[in-house]
Amino acid sequence: MMGGQEEQPGVVEEATVEKVLKRSSSVVSEKEVTLKDLARSMANFAAEREWDQFHSPRNLLLALVGEVGELSEIFQWKGEVPRGLSDWNDADKEHLGEELADVLLYLVRLADVCNVDLGDSALQKLQKNARKYPL
């Protein structure tokens, strides 16, 4: 994901991911990860591979759109699906998780490259929506 032409989409070794997560200011468990942790990890991941040259806002946006397309394909012919995906098998749920992660990682990377605090922007947007759509 995230790189130059020689890299295969979606292929990242588990040991590499663990190393990237450990390089942030503190060791992060999957349950405690923040947007800032992800941004730091993604920045380190890209810098180590010299991929910053490819991570322009435009390129990241186009990659994000591609990943949203892959996410959409999962649901394309399923019709409505129940919340919680109770009728999905484990492999389909894992695939969904991977595509959701790809979308999140590109979104976080795009926000970071554009110097946008994604968490703060999301909270501000929620507040704006609460004013726009009061109870």
Automatic annotation (TrEMBL):
Any one GO cellular component localisation term in the record: cytosol
Localisation per UniProt entry: Cytoplasm, Cytosol
Gene Ontology biological process terms in this record: dCTP catabolic process; DNA protection
Catalysis: reaction(s): dCTP + H2O = dCMP + diphosphate + H(+)
An annotated Gene Ontology molecular function: magnesium ion binding
Highest taxon in the source lineage: Eukaryota
EC number: 3.6.1.12
Cofactor: Mg(2+)
Pfam families: MazG-like
UniProt entry tagged with the keyword Hydrolase: yes
InterPro entries: DCTPP (IPR025984)
Keywords: Cytoplasm, Hydrolase, Magnesium, Metal-binding
Predominant cellular place of this UniProt entry's protein: cytoplasm
SUPFAM superfamilies named in the record: all-alpha NTP pyrophosphatases
PANTHER family in alphabetical order: DCTP PYROPHOSPHATASE 1, PTHR14552
Subunit structure: Homotetramer.
Described purpose of this protein according to its UniProt entry: Hydrolyzes deoxynucleoside triphosphates (dNTPs) to the corresponding nucleoside monophosphates. Has a strong preference for dCTP and its analogs including 5-iodo-dCTP and 5-methyl-dCTP for which it may even have a higher efficiency. May protect DNA or RNA against the incorporation of these genotoxic nucleotide analogs through their catabolism.
Protein name as annotated: dCTP pyrophosphatase 1
The organism of origin for this protein: Physcomitrium patens (Spreading-leaved earth moss)
